[in-house]
Predict the structure.
Amino acid sequence: MTRADHTPCELLEWDTDFFGFRVARVRGETLTPERARPIDAWCRQAGVRCLYFLSRADDPDTTRLAEDHHFRLVDMRVTFARSVANGSQLPGDRPDNHALVRPAQPNDLRVLQDIARHSYRDTRFYFDSNFPPHLSDSLYQTWIRRSCEGYADSVLVAELGGEPAGYISCHLDKPSPAGRIGLVGVSQQAQGQGLGQKLVLSAVEWFQAQQVQAVSVATQARNSAAQRLYQRCGFLVQSVQLWYHKWYRPEEPAHV
C-alpha cells in the first residue's frame, strides 16, 4: 500500500478535468468523528471544490455525521445483481418489437449521444443544482462516447427501422469473472416498446459468452422504471447506498 492510500480522500482526475474544478471522493463508506475532521483538512489543502461520498445506508452514525458535517444527500444508489453462469435461465417473455440488437458502430455515435443527453435526468448530477444542467448533459454524452471508444468492453445498440433507438454498455471486472452494466438508454420516441428489456437480456447473453458468473447494475432509488426493468430480467437487489455531495467555497475554511 502506498502512502497516498492512507489519505482520507482521493482526487478524481477525470471529473476534475471535465467540470473544471477539483473533485474528490471520500475513501470508504463510513464516517467516524475521528475521520470527519481530517477529510475537511485534506480537501482544504487540496483545493477541492466538490467532494463525493458513497456511504452505507444502514449505519445511523455515518448518516448523522454526514449531516452534521454539511454533506448533502443527492441520491440513493440501488445495486441489482443476477447469476449468468452457464445453465442460468433467462426470462422467457421477451418483447416482440422487431428490434435488432447489434454491436455499436462508429456512425451510431451522434444518435447515441443525443439519446444520452435526455436519458439521465434523475441522476445525482441533475439533482445537485451546483452542477449546471448543460454540463450534466455533456457528462453523459461524453460517457457514451468514451464507452464506444473502449472504456466499455462492449456497447450494444437496439436498432428500429434501420436507426439506433437505444444502447447498453457492458464492462468486465477483471480478474474476477464478474460483469457490470454501465449505461442504458432508450430514445424518447421508442419508449414503451420493450427495448430496455431486450437490451438488458442481450447484454446478459453477451456476458454469458464471456464466461462471466454474475452481472450487476446500479440505478437510482427514484428511478422506479429502471428497477422494474432489472427485476423483469431476473435481477435482485444486492445493496443500497447513499450518495452525498459536499461543496467547499475556496475563500472560506472547510466546516469542522
Residues 115 and 155 are 14 Å apart (CA to CA). The chain has two domains: 3-76+242-247, 80-240. The radius of gyration is 20 Å. The helical segments are 13-19, 33-46, 60-68, 109-118, 124-127, 133-151, 195-209, 224-232.
